[in-house]
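Changelog-adjacent note: as of this version, every example in the card shows the full chain rather than a window. The one below runs 482 residues end to end.
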Amino acid sequence: MSARAKSYAAVDLGASSGRVMVGRVGPDSLELTEAHRFPNRPVRTSEGLRWDVLGLYAGVLDGLRAAGQVDSVGIDSWAVDYGLLDADGALLGNPVHYRDSRTEGVAEKVWATVPAEELYAATGLQYAPFNTLYQLTAARHSAQLAYAERLLLIPDLLTYWLTGEQGTELTNASTTQLVDPRTRDWSYDIASRLGIDLGLFAPLRQPGDPAGLLRAEVLEETGLTGPVPVTAVGSHDTASAVAAVPADGERFAYICTGTWSLAGLELDAPVLTEESRAANFTNELGLDGTVRYLRNIMGLWLLQECVRAWGGPELGPLLLEAGQVPALRSVVDAGDAAFLAPGRMPERIAEACRASGQPVPVSPAEVTRCILDSLALAHRRAIDEAQRLADRPVDVVHVVGGGTRNALLCQLTADACGLPVVAGPAEAAALGNVLVQARTHGLVGDLGDGRRLLTRTQPLTRYEPHGDAARWREAEARLTGG
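Full-length structure tokens:
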């Protein structure tokens, strides 16, 4: 490793687990190792579904201790959720989980004031019942919001506990449905019309901005020697993951796979047409002035919930069995909000197949094949529609994130899309996090430089499409009635 190499701690929090990764970056080297991994288990209380944010913070501290001396720390996590602080900076209750039921029916109340068409034209955000905008509307008359002096999105909350400094990182802020993707600033008109106080939010930060130094108490807890800066990264994990797509040029699509599948394109400007809204595409902000034009698909959540219901069988043998099940026998809409809540997932998938007149999958292997075929079909639909709506053709699909370890899903995605799939890196969010930190030290240049470094240093697998495209069109017709 070059003498100029530096080490960066990437705190990467997913919906089911958190991890602290250490990236060691030199002028032509990039190595990533796992320092610590810990569970992220939401807790259902009498109030509803909540995040165990103190447990997550403890996992972060344990991870920094395991990481050893680093040159910087960056935090990314899932989007939309937040913690509320009082005037003393103390947390007011446990942050609400986006899968909590409090936002049911809230969107219609918002649309009565700002019609859905106007809301999309102003913010470019797809409809999702858990968007921060709807969460704040649901909480409007709560005691916690009444006493709140500050709202911090999850990675910004953890950064505040590490440094004592408050900010709102832009890529994550863009998921709140309160940011104008054209100006890359708050949508003051929308917030005003809906009675949302933007003064609750800390000042906006850009990826790469300084976010403070680790507090003395944190240094003592972790055994690190200060000063250790914390750097704002693409704190929405999808922003970091897309930054780590090892693409060359512009003619690519990406699928960030994990609990969710985020499938779409990287653009220079948002697509705010009514047709785009009707197709439920979102315009989130990325690094270097880019827009992440994508659709949220339920993702491997479907399989995770089934595996949990089956008592945790090993995934490898299950996928081998699923590979022997006839293809496209039954498919479901992997974007259907009916699959959003936890519990009874195998039964709900069977019910959806029964309702659509398809064979009902019974065994775990049959249900697994139904899920993977359905995800590949949803990937196909999202990428086809994104190309058409953005007028941007693509030649290759890059799959990053945990789904890259699922060879069957990657091959099915190539078959469904009729395009080659390049799978990897698996830890894309952590790598994107590290790359932004490395940029602040001059070890990496622009977005393209970082992607070329990834291509040279990370293992990638290519899947060529094969099979009959007509079978995928027929399966699509079963879902759409077309």
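Structural remarks: The two ends are 57 Å apart (CA to CA).
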